[in-house]
Specification:
- The structure is a single chain.
- This protein is of the alpha+beta class.
- About 20% of the residues lie in helices and about 25% in strands.
- The strands form three sheets. A four-stranded antiparallel β-sheet has the order 1-2-7-6, with no helix packed on it. Strands 5-4-8 form a three-stranded antiparallel β-sheet, with no helix packed on it. It has a two-stranded antiparallel sheet with strand order 3-9.
- A hairpin with a 4-residue loop joins strand 1 and strand 2.
- The longest helix is centred in the middle third of the chain and has 18 residues.
- The protein is globular and about 45 Å long.
- The two termini are about 15 Å apart.
Length: about 170
């Protein structure tokens, strides 16, 4: 499920969450080719170039399922750790790559303080598996971190792995 420039964020995220639930609970089902980072030509349809990228990602997924490739996904978020009241480190697990880009001005993350969004000032690489998020305010309640959430997340500078496929987080 890609992006949509209209719609309710929680509804779109609910569909994505259901897809991941199916993959984790029903044998021989797979969530493959991510499209959330790809360009749109209208409110929901991918551009021709984005369709090509998506097709290549789908092929990579099928090849991986058949055992002819060793991966079909980019890195994933392992966990987030609050460093202090303004700083959170996000720890990544690499599936096939060993690093990620970009190293600064990373977009797509959200920090919530007891459900209230905080403004992220910086999102920068700390190491090959850590992204540091710094917020404008202070975290005083329960911390939540999410990435590429909802119908139309900010994708101007998302995270990609360093494989030949440059797969997104």
């Amino acid at each position: 499920l890609g992006r949509c420039t209209t719609g309710v964020a929680a509804d779109w995220q609910g569909i994505r969450n259901a897809l991941y639930w199916v993959e984790g609970n029903i044998a021989d089902t797979y969530v493959g080719a991510t499209a959330i980072d790809l360009a749109l030509m209208d409110v929901v349809h991918l551009t021709a170039g984005a369709q090509t990228t998506h097709g290549q990602r789908m092929a990579q997924t099928v090849l991986d399922i058949l055992g002819n490739e060793t991966y079909h996904r980019g890195p994933s978020i392992n966990y987030a750790s609050q460093i202090n009241t303004t700083t959170v480190d996000v720890y990544l697990s690499h599936v096939s790559g060993t690093d990620f880009t970009p190293t600064s001005a990373i977009t797509g993350f959200e920090i919530l303080d007891s459900g209230t969004p905080e403004t992220i000032n910086t999102a920068v690489r700390q190491s090959a598996s850590v992204i540091r998020l710094t917020i404008a305010g202070t975290i005083t309640g329960t911390l939540s971190v999410r990435y590429l959430y909802g119908a139309n997340p900010t994708i101007t500078s998302p995270v990609f792995d360093n494989t030949a496929m440059t797969l997104p987080l």
